[in-house]
C-alpha cells in the first residue's frame, strides 16, 4: 500500500475506533485518540510511534477481518513506523538503500570489516592482524589509537547527528497545533514512561504478543536489550575516561569495572535479542506487517552481531586471532553506527518524542478536566454568588 493510501486507511480506522471506544484506556494511543475528532497525516505518524505494538486492541476488537471494517491498528502502525524511518532520515539519499533494503546493513558490515583490516594493515602492518599482543595498550598494537578515535568519533557524529535531524523534523510534525509549550514535567513523565516501558505492561498482565495470551516476557526482554545497551555505553564512557584522562589504555583485566560493565551489557543484549527473535518467530501473521517484521529482525540480528563479536573478542584477546576479531567487531560497530539513522535503531528516538508529546497532552487534558470539575462545584448554602468571582 502506498503512503497516501496507508494514511487514508489509517484515518478511516481511527475514526471507526473513536466511534466505538471499546479499547478506551488500553494504552496511550487510545487515550490520545479520544482527544481528537479528526485525524491529520501528522496525527497518524504520531500515533504510530506512540504505539508499542502490544496488540491488546487487536485481540479485543470485534471489527477485525473478516468483518468489513477490517480494523487492524498494530499492522497499520507498524507500516507507518517504517514510513517514519525513511521520511525523517537524513541524508535521505541513503534512506532507501540502508533502511528499506535489508541487505544494506550487511553490505555496510562487510565494507566495515574490509575498512578495519585496511586500517590495521596501514597503521601496523600484517603483524597487527596476525601477531599476538598482550598487556596494556595491546589493542593499539593492532589499530592505531588516533585512527580509532578519528573513525569512531566521525561515525558517532554521523549517527547522533542523523538522529537529531530526524527528531527535529519529526517534532515539527507532531508538536501541538496550538503551540502549547512542553514543560519540564512533560519530559520527566515521558522519560519515566520510556524507561519503564509502561505501555508493554498491560496494566500488570503484559501484552498479547506474540499470540493472544497476555505475557510480561516481551517487556522483560526489551529491558534486557535497553539496559544492556546502556551498560555498554557506560563501559565505553568509563573506558574513555581511563584511557584519555587517567592514561591507562585498554585492554583491562576481567575484574575491571570497564570489563564488568561491558560483559553485563553484552549478555543483556544477547539474552534480550535472542528472546525477542524467538517471540518474533511465533508472531501472529494476521497482526504483523511483513516488511516491518523483516526490518525488526534485521536490526535485532545486527545488534546481536555486535554483542556476540564483542564477547568473542573479549574471550580471545590474548590470542593471535585478536587482530582479526578486532577488525570484525569494529566493522560491525562501524556498520551499526553508519546505518543507525535509517533502520529500526532510530525507533527509540521517535517513540521517546511521541511519549513526551503524549505526556503533554495528558497534562493539558487533566488540567482541563480539573477546571471543568471546579466550575461545576455547587455553591455552598449561604455563600454569595459574587464571592466566586
UniProtKB/TrEMBL annotation:
InterPro entries, sorted: 4Fe4S_Fe_S_CS, Citrate_utilization_prot_B, NarG-like_sf
Identification of the protein by name: Tricarballylate utilization 4Fe-4S protein TcuB
SUPFAM superfamilies xrefs: 4Fe-4S ferredoxins (SSF54862), Respiratory nitrate reductase 1 gamma chain (SSF103501)
Transmembrane segments: 105-126, 146-166, 224-243, 255-279, 299-316, 322-342
Domain of life: Bacteria
UniProt KW keywords: Iron, Iron-sulfur, Membrane, Metal-binding, Transmembrane, Transmembrane helix
Recorded name of the encoding gene: tcuB
Organism field: Neobacillus pocheonensis
Amino acid at each position: 500500500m502506498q503512503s497516501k493510501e496507508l494514511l487514508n486507511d489509517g484515518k478511516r480506522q481511527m475514526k471507526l475506533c473513536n466511534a466505538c471506544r471499546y479499547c478506551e484506556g488500553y494504552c496511550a494511543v487510545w487515550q490520545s485518540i479520544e482527544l481528537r475528532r479528526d485525524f491529520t497525516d501528522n496525527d497518524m505518524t504520531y500515533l504510530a510511534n506512540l504505539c508499542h505494538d502490544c496488540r491488546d486492541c487487536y485481540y479485543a476488537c470485534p471489527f477485525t477481518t473478516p468483518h468489513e471494517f477490517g480494523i487492524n491498528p498494530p499492522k497499520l502502525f507498524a507500516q507507518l513506523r517504517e514510513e517514519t524511518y525513511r521520511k525523517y532520515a537524513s541524508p535521505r539519499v541513503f534512506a532507501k538503500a540502508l533502511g528499506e533494503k535489508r541487505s544494506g546493513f550487511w553490505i555496510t558490515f562487510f565494507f566495515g570489516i574490509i575498512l578495519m583490516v585496511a586500517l590495521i594493515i596501514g597503521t601496523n602492518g600484517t603483524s597487527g592482524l596476525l601477531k599476538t599482543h598482550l598487556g596494556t595498550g595491546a589493542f593499539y598494537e593492532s589499530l592505531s589509537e588516533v585512527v580509532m578515535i578519528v573513525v569512531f568519533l566521525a561515525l558517532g557524529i554521523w549517527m547522533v547527528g542523523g538522529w537529531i535531524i530526524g527528531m527535529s523534523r519529526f517534532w515539527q510534525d507532531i508538536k501541538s497545533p496550538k503551540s502549547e509549550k512542553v514543560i519540564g514535567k512533560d519530559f520527566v513523565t515521558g522519560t519515566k514512561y520510556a524507561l519503564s516501558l509502561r505501555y508493554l505492561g498491560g496494566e500488570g498482565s503484559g501484552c498479547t504478543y506474540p499470540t493472544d495470551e497476555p505475557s510480561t516476557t516481551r517487556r522483560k526482554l526489551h529491558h534486557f536489550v535497553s539496559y544492556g545497551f546502556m551498560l555498554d555505553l557506560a563501559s565505553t564512557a568509563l573506558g574513555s575516561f581511563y584511557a584519555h584522562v587517567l592514561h591507562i589504555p585498554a585492554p583491562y583485566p576481567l575484574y575491571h569495572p570497564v570489563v564488568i560493565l561491558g560483559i553485563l551489557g553484552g549478555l543483556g543484549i544477547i539474552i534480550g535479542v535472542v528472546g525477542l527473535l524467538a517471540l518474533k518467530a511465533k508472531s501472529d501473521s494476521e497482526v504483523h506487517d511483513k516488511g516491518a517484521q523483516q526490518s525488526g529482525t534485521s536490526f535485532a540480528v545486527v545488534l546481536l552481531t555486535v554483542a556476540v563479536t564483542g564477547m568473542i573478542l573479549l574471550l580471545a584477546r590474548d590470542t593471535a586471532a585478536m587482530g582479526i576479531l578486532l577488525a570484525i567487531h569494529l566493522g560491525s560497530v562501524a556498520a551499526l553506527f553508519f546505518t543507525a539513522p535509517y533502520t529500526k535503531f532510530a525507533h527509540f528516538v521517535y517513540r521517546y518524542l511521541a511519549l513526551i508529546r503524549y505526556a503533554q497532552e495528558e497534562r493539558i487534558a487533566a488540567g482541563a478536566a480539573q477546571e471543568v470539575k471546579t466550575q461545576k462545584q455547587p455553591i455552598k448554602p449561604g455563600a454569595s454568588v459574587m464571592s466566586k468571582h
